[in-house]
Amino acid sequence: MLESGSTIGILGGGQLGRMLALAAARLGLRCHVFAPSPDSCAFDVVHRVTCADYADAGALDRFAADVDVITYEFENVPAEAASFLASRKPVIPDPDILAITQDRLSEKDFIAKLGIQTARYASISSLDTLECAIEAIGLPAVLKTRRFGYDGKGQVSIREDTDPAAAWRGIGQQPAIVESFVLFEREVSIVAARAQNGRIECFDLTENEHRDHILARSRVPARVPDALAREAQAIAEKIAAAFGYVGVFAVEMFVLSQKLLVNEIAPRVHNSGHWTIDGASVSQFEQHIRAIAGWPLAKPRRHGALEMINLIGDEVKDAERWLRHPGACLHLYGKSAPRPGRKMGHVTLLGGD
Amino acid sequence: MLESGSTIGILGGGQLGRMLALAAARLGLRCHVFAPSPDSCAFDVVHRVTCADYADAGALDRFAADVDVITYEFENVPAEAASFLASRKPVIPDPDILAITQDRLSEKDFIAKLGIQTARYASISSLDTLECAIEAIGLPAVLKTRRFGYDGKGQVSIREDTDPAAAWRGIGQQPAIVESFVLFEREVSIVAARAQNGRIECFDLTENEHRDHILARSRVPARVPDALAREAQAIAEKIAAAFGYVGVFAVEMFVLSQKLLVNEIAPRVHNSGHWTIDGASVSQFEQHIRAIAGWPLAKPRRHGALEMINLIGDEVKDAERWLRHPGACLHLYGKSAPRPGRKMGHVTLLGGD
After folding, report:
1. Beta bridge partners of B51
2. Average pLDDT per consecutive 10 residues, chain B (353 residues; last block may be shorter)
3. Overall CATH class of domain B7-91
4. Domain extents for chain A?
5. From CA A28, how far away is CA B343, in angstroms rounded?
6. Between the CA of residue B10 and those of A101, A159, B33, B67, B320, what are the distances in Å?
7. To probe the interface with A, which of B41, B201, B308, B330 has the most A CB atoms within 10 Å?
8. How does DSSP assign A275-329, residue by residue?
9. ipTM value of the model?
10. What is the end-to-end Cα distance of chain B in Å, rounded?
11. Rounded CA gap, B113 and B132, in Å?
């Protein structure tokens, strides 16, 4: 168990790192954030910062020397940086898990091997393999780069009238997967924490709405039968156990004809779990800090029905309106420029307003 | 209205400053903490710190230049420092209010002039005046220095067998007041926020238990009739309006035969309001930040019945037990040495466990 007053190293300086640091502070822990960008919003709330590139071995070395345990706020931390650090201090969750989830193909293979359903998919390495896969899987489908995709980046839809060659060029002719397009009824996610002793605590199944591939709104509880919610938890537990995972993670799923198809695993705190800050007795951020510190997890209690609304780009201009809205809890991330698609803050609505 | 990304200056680096800074961070605001002690626990969670004496004019000047608005976490900020700063940037709440509440006599006179009941009291400037006052007020009574008293410091009980001269020496023969000892049924407090436009939002009346003059436990709602709880709110509103107060404050009161006697005003966030972090839709810390930033206040909603337990001195060693306790939300302040009487953290118990 990490002692109170210890220092947690966080790779990445965005809002997830910021909210992790705020949760650590509640527990008497210090944070040191490592991030390449000088205007990282997590820098404002921590004891120490390192602003350096992930390839800067000297900076990584000094960072490792200053902290007691290292975690990350996003899944695209370069594998080299993670393993360099892991040779110096505990990096949790294990960088080997990062390596799997950074690659959409190995992630899907991992899930499928556990007997968990996903959309039909195939590995793509050339235009030929893409044409074969379309034949096998059918249309519509989505072509996605294997690596570095998030919020809709690195993906192209393929319909009856799409030229496969154009789609292949569209993603830069990189190693990819093609997935059958799922006409889902709902998108849901489970956010859960797994402790070093293997104990798992799940937050309630959350229903998500995306707009332009970016999460716009979550509501909890998800409007699905109890049996399906329990199945979602069982899937999350199976995945976490197979990884030997420690910390918080999210599993995004589609609901289709009373079945669940796993879409993606996020090996980190997740936007669809932001409601837990105001809406539960323990937040996803605190559960993650507890897990990586080797502390016991809390059993979350939810404060009724809730919604979470992201403030994306110019929507941050509604902040004053949200300050006046009954039952609304406003979070702003302290970012300067409200660029389109940039997550600037979020609102939790208590009591299902 | 202060813009998001602005910097709030906080005088004082203890746990109240720390929790104010964490609340400001949720709202996208930066904090700069000014405190004399290098191991101030608020330093760990803010953008910038100044470690200097309150008499250091150069440091105060640089601090004022870096921030947009200034507030304080405790009422014993030297009046000179507050007025020096007030000539440079807005200091909220108004330092004139500090001057009144820093002096027990002027505080009691202020309350009495509003027609609000207190214990009987008298001004003491010599052994003679003390002996007269005991005659008038009766025993038991409490002799308290007019200035710099908190958590039971600077006060002496006077009973039938107490030598008044010894009591007078006991508080260092300083200007003082003597108060009739109130055999109260309960101690309660109202924590409330007043906005720049005069609007007031009160948190629910809280019942407090002290041990060795230090708050040990709070519970909410207080076990008093509704009419008394409403009267407590009316008293808080009257005091705040008379001060033209902006920010969060607390009024401590005694309950005696279905009457309320005001004991003390704290012109700041207050230990008996810590339950609001986990137990309400908005915390006292966020309300204070909203008020001093000129933002609208939120209407607090409480998550059921609650208790707050302070972890004082060695009680912080129970932290691991509290981590495992169902419905317990643990807060540690990141202080190194658990000295006797030192507030090290607190626990909020949800659902009245």
Report:
1. B35
2. 93 98 98 97 96 97 98 90 96 94 95 97 96 95 86 84 94 94 95 97 98 95 97 98 98 96 97 98 98 97 96 96 97 93 97 58
3. alpha beta
4. 7-91, 120-180, 186-350
5. 13
6. 43, 58, 5, 9, 31
7. B330
8. THHHHBSS-HHHHHHHHHTTPPPP---B-SSEEEEEEEGGGGGGHHHHHHSTTEE
9. 0.95
10. 40
11. 23
Amino acid identity at B59: A
Residues of B in contact with A327 (CB under 8 A): 281, 301
What pLDDT, in 10s, does the model give residues A170-194?
999 999 999 999 999 999 999 999 9
User: In the numeric block, which tokens belong to residue A219?
Assistant: 């509501």
Q: Which residues 229-288 of A are in CB contact (within 8 Å) with B?
A: 278, 281-282
The residue type found at B134 is I
pTM of the model: 0.96
Mean pLDDT value of segment A320-333: 97
Superfamily of domain covering B120-180? ATP-grasp fold, A domain (3.30.1490.20)
Q: Under DSSP, is residue A200 helix (H, G, I), strand (E, B) or coil?
A: strand
A46 — pLDDT class (breaks 50, 70, 90)? very high
Does CATH place domain B186-350 in 3.30.470.20? yes
Separation of alpha carbons A252 and A262, rounded Å: 6
Q: Categorize the per-residue pLDDT at A353 as very low, low, confident or very high, splitting at 50, 70 and 90.
A: very low
B18 contacts in chain A (CB < 8 Å):
25
